UniProtKB/TrEMBL annotation:
Record's subcellular location: Nucleus
Keywords annotated in UniProt: DNA damage, DNA repair, Nucleus
Record flagged with keyword Nucleus: yes
GO BP annotation list: DNA damage checkpoint signaling; DNA repair
Protein name in UniProt: Cell cycle checkpoint protein RAD1
Signal peptide: none
Origin species: Parthenolecanium corni
One cellular component (GO) term of this entry: checkpoint clamp complex
Hydrolase recorded as keyword: no
Cited SUPFAM superfamilies: DNA clamp (SSF55979)
Entry's family note: Belongs to the rad1 family.
Length: 266
């Protein structure tokens, strides 16, 4: 039964649909949760130049009720603790194929996030402290300023990405409307390493580039993307005129529904 004192009430039959997506952005200890009628969005930032957000649509939940879309539905939380709670039953199940159900509720400003997990009759009740510091940067990318957009098959692109030299200080993306179209470069202890992806490659599903652009990012800032890339079906890469890059990962659940992770690096 839904408690109408709650600002937010949500229930999902398989908590892994939530925990996998949150693990993908758990490279910092805290995140800001935004609840809306459309679903839950959790945002993580690093050094004011990296932002990752996970969006879990309301269709992922078997129950999703939001009574207040104002500031009461926004809170900061310890993401490390949240992920630990959601994965508390991982590896301990005795029945193959069994899943852990999740109930989640929040009563608004100053109240904790309450979590109830149930698997095979075993119930765990958690109460997580929330915080009111909810400011995040606006990294929205205007379509008119996008120079290049590429959509790739994520499992194949991951194979390319893991081959990059992890000793490199940077990752350089070169995109062009002409050959070589898409080139990724690193330079580390083993020397200079380049990967060229033609626009007609089997891993490319969409390629649009109006002008040639070269953009370089710290490897340490791009590396956390591998968590999302490992569980995604597709990845979209957009770069604007200022060199801001947005990687959007489409993650499929067992019921052919989708969650999304967006990753911005300036």
């Amino acid at each position: 039964m839904v408690n109408h004192e709650n600002v937010l009430h949500a229930k999902v039959d398989n908590v892994k649909n939530i925990s996998l997506v949150l693990k993908a952005i758990n490279f910092k200890s805290h995140g800001v949760c935004f609840a809306s009628d459309c679903g839950l969005k959790v945002v993580v930032e690093d050094s004011k130049c990296v932002q990752a957000s996970a969006f879990i649509g309301n269709e992922i939940f078997q129950e999703y009720v939001l009574f207040d879309e104002d500031d009461n539905a926004i809170f900061r939380i310890d993401l490390n603790t949240l992920v630990e709670c959601l994965t508390i039953f991982d590896g301990f199940t005795t029945t193959p194929g069994s899943t852990t159900a999740l109930k989640m509720s929040y009563q608004g400003y100053g109240h904790p996030l309450k979590i109830i997990l149930e698997e095979e009759g075993i119930i765990t009740d958690c109460s997580l402290k929330t915080m009111s510091d909810c400011e995040v940067l606006d990294f929205e990318m205007v379509n008119s300023e996008v120079v290049c957009k590429v959509i790739l098959r994520a499992p194949d692109f991951k194979d390319v990405f893991v081959d990059l030299d992890s000793s490199s200080n940077y990752v350089e993306f070169f995109l062009s409307p002409e050959d070589p179209y898409f080139k990724i470069t690193t330079e580390g202890l083993a020397g200079k390493f380049e990967v060229v992806i033609p626009k007609n490659s089997k891993i490319v599903e969409f390629f649009d580039c109006s002008n040639s652009i070269t953009a370089r990012y710290r490897y340490s800032q791009i590396k956390p993307c591998l968590k999302s890339l490992s569980i995604a079906a597709k990845v979209s890469i957009r770069i604007n005129e200022a060199g801001l890059i947005c990687l959007q990962f489409m993650i499929e659940t067992e019921f052919k529904q989708y969650c999304y992770v967006e990753y911005y690096v300036s």
